[in-house]
Design a protein that fits this description.
Elements (H helix, E strand, L loop, with lengths): L2 E4 L3 H4 L7 H15 L1 H12 L10 H8 L4 H24 L3 E6 L2 E9 L2 E5 L8 H14 L3 E6 L8 H10 L3 E4 L2 H10 L9 E3 L4 H10 L5 E2 L8 E5 L5 H12 L7 E5 L2 H15 L5 H11 E5 L3 H11 L3 E5 L5 H5 L5 E4 L5 H6 L25 E9 L2 H16 L4 H15 L7
Parallel strand pairs: 4-5, 4-7, 5-6, 7-8, 9-10, 9-12, 10-11, 12-13
Antiparallel strand pairs: 1-11, 2-3, 3-14
Amino acid sequence: MILKLKQQNPASAGSAPVTDTPTVVRGVIDDIRANGDQSVRAYSEKFDKWSPASFRLSQDDINNIISSVPQQILDDIKQVQENVRAFAMAQRASIKDFEMEIRPGVHLGQKNIPINSVGAYIPGGRYPLLASSHMTILTAKCAGVPHVTACTPPIAGKIPANTVAAMHYAGADDIYILGGVQAVAAMAVGTETMKKVDFIAGPGNAFVAEAKRQLFGEEIGIDLPAGPTEILIVADEHADPFTVATDLLSQAEHGPDSPAVLITNSQSVGKKTIDEVNRLLEILPTADVAGVSWDRLGEVIVVENLDEAYEIADEYAYEHVQILTQKPREALEKMSNYGALFLGEKTCVSYGDKCIGTNHVLPTRGAARYTGGLWVGKYLKTVTYQEVTSPQESGELGRLCGRAARAENFEGHARSGDARAHQYLGDKFDWI
């Protein structure tokens, strides 16, 4: 049995005005592809009221900006980046190059090569997301990426100094104060003053996400498709409704389209959580955003047992899944579809977002069914190589290749094999 104490409000969810985002984005991309810096500047003036002599910050600019940042913030940035670096380097160490000899003289190998150039987009609209600098730039550097171009928009016509500090300490090679589709397009196609990148990572609004989607494959690789932040909490009868409510709202404040879902085996916990959410919204400074998200997309689902809760949670396949039960590690065995798990009441999604060290760029909108989030491996190209040094084995492979290729009617492929069978084993062929 499933009891929904609260569910999404379809009427409210559909009340927002409709914008043809793909068409708008395509127009901007095409314009920048045709006109380069001139169009980048025009869109920056239009969307951000920002048109400096140079969008790129010089080293002197960076030094002056960082000098304006309070020392405590700088120290915190460095501490968080130490956490992110430690985890990312451990991930990198887990990815091995190898070579094996499958038969005498037949060598197969694998190498993991960093992408040559990466673009990192650091959002700055509603909130300056310093943490995205750690997650995108620093992780790329841990993977060995030689050059990272980083873009972040101005906020209310000003340079976001804290974000610039985070980008610099993360290892960005070039920092641009440039936002939106114009930043993504400029990095992807290249302009007179910005070198084209091979890959773009980082979250953003619907227009940034659409720009990445349209440019993917055509111009660049991307980390993953991005959507609104999601949180799902699985809680048992021992969970504290205040903690549950606080953690739900922590993600609902991301935007008015951020779903927050509780699945619990306790009707009491469900009802008390709703009461706590309503109480906390009266005092939360970001209630104007979080309240809209909760009203439109909040859900509380009561189930008979935790096995059912885990099953439903897997169907949602949400970005962040928090486990507030007496045995939170059960979720590691019971669940498979999530961007990241947060186990136990001492852990919260906000730790992952801001400081604990794992990456916060995660799959949304059900993408957790087939992919994980951003990690060191996303910045690596896993390539293979092969070498045959034994004449006998080359001839035997030639015979096998000939038969396998002709079974698929690939005569040209077959003859490459025939040539080795003829050269090394003396086989006779009509065409040779």
